[in-house]
Amino acid sequence: MPYNDYRPDLMGTATLEPRGPFEVRSWQSLTLVYTAGLFGIDDQGSVKIGMRGHFDGSPLQTTEPTQPGYVTAEASNGAPLEVSIETRRNIRPWNKSIFIRCLRYLKEGDTITLRLGDKRNGSPGLQLQTFCESKLTFQVLVDAYATYDYVPLAEARTPYVSVVPTVPAVWKIVAPTLRRPGEPFRISIKAEDVWGNPSDKIDQTIRLSATGRVDGLPENVTFLPGEFVQIAERLKVEEEGTYTIRAHDERGNLLAMSNPIVIKPCSFAHFWSDMHGQSGETIGINTAREYFDFARNKSFLDICGHQGNDFQITDAFWQELNCLTAEFNEDDRFLAVPGYEWSGNTGTGGDHNVWYRGEGRPIYRSSRALIADRTRTDKDAHRLPDLFDRLEGEDAIVVAHVGGRHADVKYAFEAKLEPSVEIHSAWGTFEWILKDAIEMGYRVGIVGSSDGHKGRPGASYPGDSSFGSYGGLTCHLLPRLNRDALFAEFRKRHHYATTGARIFLDVAGQFDNGCRVLQPDSSTSPATQCLMGDVVETGNESMRLALRVEGSAPIERVEIFDATELIRTYRTWEQRELGNRIRVTVAGQRYRGRGRLVRWQGKLRLSGGEIERYAAVNFWNHNEQPKQVSDSEIIWTAVTTGGEAAIDIWVDAAAMEGDVIIDTNFEGGRFAMRSLDADGETVNCGGMDIRFNVKRLPEILKTCSFDQCVELPLSRKKENKFFVKVTQEDGHKAWSSPIYVSSSSQGDVR
Are residues 414 and 517 in the same domain? Predict the structure, then answer.
């Protein structure tokens, strides 16, 4: 239930100084003064200061005055105060809180002065969070009667500060991955600070160039202070090929290179989505309006959805969300899709995203845990089968999600509503949910999204918190950008997922004697080829899988699966090219639920020789990067939540004749470097799939393109489920939706 709402106007006031704006990760000392209201606070009464659970600044503490995050509290009347830091003992989203118990009473007008990052005894202060927030709010809750029944101050009296980006560190050029010859497109340019926030602290002209002729591309664009982005519109390419756009500073230094842009005749183009995230009205930050604005104007998505937890979406907010999606939605420019996250506990089905084609549809809640309104409870859907019943006849799509309450597709599934499963988000990588679906015989596509809680849909960095991955994206194969096309092609599973990189992936099946393609309405159409996600029937003995990848970084490997079985692995180099480069990869999760995060403490050392250089892969926390502590030793701290993090080392010739010794807080091992190959050796460390791997790579990977046509035999006894997984050198991955192929006794179906 929400908090007690008894007379918040009589519960006092609070002020906070200074107010900012402050740059992310800057050191501050904030003073919050609570002034008691009419009732004062009784002996043993208390005040709670709530902060959102995503705050990833200095951990708050009350015991070490010289250390970061030191918190103190004093009462103006001299009353002794008991101060403690609590986690998950407050109503969400205020999962972190400061608890102040008054051991004697306060009367009206008495004050409690709370210092966050108290510097008076040598603390450096409080280091702020890694992400921008227009209102970093400190919710003040008052138990005036010592009943442990809290009343929050009125919203107008709730103190906050604003957090803004710092200086640029990384430039980005975002471009489409597939357009047809002569089809207009745009590129978008921004600079992010070290924590992934778009920065407006720029006063610079940059030069643009392309690998081929791009009509309309300006030679220069200029950023002025206060400007976050520059966009070049109405660009065209007439000639087929693969193009990239580059940005250089005025001295000619390369600042950024776009993702690959493939130009070819095709019935569809590529459009990128992050359809799953939340704003401050539920568990995220900032407003829903700011959320959609970021998606359209700062991460440059084509498609976006807002998926607030249903048990926190009031009827008024549901109406507001529908108004916002209608306002932001613009065909052929940007799609905003209405929807919500059905947030049932795992035992009742687990998290599932729901999207409607149009506004004005009902919200069927899993519960009303944080909603006081008890009217129209007949609209609730407490179990996943209940949701499916409620959605019968609705123009809706449902996708299973793995987050805090992970989905259980074995508990319930509805093929008419659920075209796909989500296997990557900021929560991690969850290939196990695809395996579950395949084992149950379901035909599902593969999508990725962020489930971002930090106000950055489409560019969701985990920061310094329990999120272990960069947020995912989905690439949709659409004839044009509108909701009708999106829903039609989504239901055909014509999409692929990535871990956030805009990788070009083309996967198609070809049949010499033709096939029949099953449509969502259960009709079939004859064809000689099919797309990823299609369900086909054929009399052929085999299928040619036509596969093309244009990576946003060099390609490390390409794998072809049939259901859960790996059947082919391709690399862009030969075994003889393996060099003096060793990759150590840590991976895995503890279990399927909210506490899946694995914290790694590791050390790498050589038995002889020296490390010439090293690089980190998927170490998203800027404050926790590997450190070389001697000529032959590196230490690291990392987190994994189903995904991977890796360290590459390049060693001298003497080192290659010896061993690399790995020690972790789980297991360790000693490996002869010369004997390692591209697959390497894996050490299992328990949990669900906690492990580390040690292997060799070529010293330099250059190949970003992969093109292959492979003959795959078809089974007469089972349905084949062919999909492709791409792994880049930089750790980013892509997964195609499977092609589902079953045999036909009718032979030639041309």
Answer: no
